[in-house]
Fold this protein.
Amino acid sequence: GDQDEVYAELARYYMKKNDLSTEAIDTYNKALEKDSYNINLLNILAQSYIHHKQVRSALLIFEKIVKIYPKNLKFVIVEVAKLCKNYPKNTMLLMSLGKFEIMGGEYKKAIENFRKVRKQDPQKKDLLIAAYYQILEKSPNTFEALVDQGQMTFDNNDFKAAAAHYIKAYEINPDNTELQSQIEKVFPKIMELEPKNTNVGEWLADYYTKSRRHTDAIGLYQKMVPLTESKERLYRKMGDCFLAKNMLDSAYNYYKKLPPNE
């Protein structure tokens, strides 16, 4: 008890002097053992760690502050952003800043930081995929998150997830040229690796149709026919493609396969 009071008194003395020395750090930690929710102690301890370039220790304190005092999130984001400026190559810092920004609903800023991490340290892809899923859980229509996640899950050989993210992004912004070029690169690769994937195959053929690439669309629809139960739908789509190409006989050949009420 007496010893706790000594550390508390000593910590107050160091805090008044804004002391960031290693002796002060030891005292702050000892005082926190008894007074773990003391925001002033936590703040000065974080600043002391920063002063000594002990970035990981500072981050742990900031995480603790946000957990105990969620209202201090904005302050923590500002402090961690300052650290990122001082250590622009520290991907652990960038990841942490991004996670704090997700908590604060600043998804675009988080994505900017995650993109820096992707560029600097591709090994962190599993952590990044998990972080992007956090964004998409809170804000499912964040276009940039869907595109990035499509790319990363594709690189991770999770083709089903990649296709789903790209398709959703396309629904949100079909005119985005960067997205279009990624779709045209990624979807044919998925089809090479999974030639019986009728969902992706038909979606890509529909995409070609919208892009007026009717020959490519017809080729894909034809591959899908033997793999699909409801062939009539594909016959109609192929008929429409041949009609768009002004190949009336071929269009008619597919239309006549449709049941009478079609």
Summary: The two ends are 87 Å apart (CA to CA). The chain is about 75% helix and 0% strand.
